[in-house]
Amino acid sequence: MDTPRRTPDNTPLMPTPTVASYCTTFLKPEMLHIYRQVTALQRYRTVVLAKERQCEDRYPFESVRLLEKPRSNFVRRFYLKYIRKAPPIFYRGEFQVLRRALADARADLLHVYFGHTGVHLLPFLRAWGGPSLVSFHGADVMPRAQDPTYIGRLTELLRFVPLVLVRSLSLRDRVVALGCPETKVRLNRTGIPLESYPLHSRTVPADGAWHFVQACRLIPKKGLRTALHAFAAMRRGQWPAARFTIAGEGPMRDEIAALVAELGLGEAVTLTGFLDQSELRSLYARAHVFIHPSEMTSDQNQEGVPNSMLEAMATGLPVVATLHGGIPEAVRDGKDGLLVPEANSAALSAALGRITQPGLWAAAGRSAAERVRAEFEQKSQVARLEECYDEVRESRE
Fold first, then answer.
1. Given a cut of 50, is residue 2 above it in pLDDT?
2. How far is the C-alpha of 80 from the C-alpha of 82, rounded, in Å?
């Protein structure tokens, strides 16, 4: 029999609890924030459960268990599907696979990443009965045209799980509007490792060559078309030597490249493609202003608080962005940068010109860095997450 470990004063040490972090794909390129979270826990051991692994070189982590493919049994499947009318997670065999994985990991609780995954797993969560919580990140609270039952099942999930994590206050309002009791919602901010994004000293460009930067996936909600039109207007007027760098990959790349050419910005705009964290830090150090004009899409997809924006702010970049989603929770208009209405290129262009006023630019940069250090520092956010884990476990005792 093993002798329990003890502290120097002979007090028995409690075993480290284990959280099973369920993420269907570990991890897509844009999921750096999840990697930071699962690898930074201090009081909990992490086991990641996933169906697929991507970008292993970018996100190296040993404690990942790929769920085995469920075994097919025609008789059992027929019985569960047509006689018992069981949900797919049962007759497809996923329930048994996931239950074994949690038992093998000796998981004390299950953290499900993304609301749509939680909706899929709801029948499992009900039958399993263990402590669980689900985190929401933005698009997962929106209706789905291809699945008219999604919002109804999402509402069931929000009422069932003991705790719901959200990345922004705007997402909190959304899940409460869907029927989630406000008492079970916890703010789970993105944590930025500040040691990786030190404050950088910058000076006003003597020749007016202001360098604007946007780092994001090239998708509609990032407001890239609006950003390019606004930059083109500003460059034609106030700052003809200004430059704009767009870092990132995504389905809109060809469309964005075509718009750059159409606006006659070929020499002023650089599309870098994907940049790793070291390359992004170098880009931020060379830039003067960060742009992030997010906007609501036709399918009601919205931002939480963009990670790239927080990283840029940490280095001392002031922000010009929109009154969208969780952005105003990080950027205070007139203090950390400037905020304008969504999808308004004229207002955005005026803000790009205004932020270059030396006094405002310098003060906003300093304030942006202080804001991230006060509200989005990684260690404090991870500590709050672990408090949520404690709360869920205690609620089931």
1. no
2. 6
Q: Looking at this protein, which amino acid is placed at residue 375?
A: E
Tokens in use for 338? 């400037």
Per-residue pLDDT reduced to its tens digit, 169-192? 989 999 999 999 999 999 998 899
**Which residues, in sequence order, are CB contacts of 48 under 8 Å at separation 6+?**
20, 21, 22, 23, 26, 38, 61, 63, 64, 65
Residue 376 near residue 309, CB atoms below 8 Å? no
Q: Are 84 and 57 in contact (CB under 8 A)?
A: no
Count of all residues that appear for the chain in the document: 397
Distance CA 38, CA 135 (A): 13
Read off the pLDDT of each residue in 129-143 and give the average, rounded to a whole number.
90
Residue with tokens 């009422």: 159
For residue 248, what is the enclosing H or E element?
none
- Is 49 in contact with 22 (CB distance < 8 Å)? yes
Query: pLDDT digit string (tens) for 30-72?
Result: 899 999 999 999 999 999 999 999 999 999 999 999 999 887 7
Residues 6+ positions from 63 with CB-CB distance below 8 Å: 45, 46, 47, 48
Q: Is the peptide bond before 27 cis (omega within 30 degrees of 0)?
A: yes
pTM of the model: 0.88
pLDDT at residue 85, rounded to an integer: 84
Q: Are 50 and 80 in contact (CB under 8 A)?
A: no
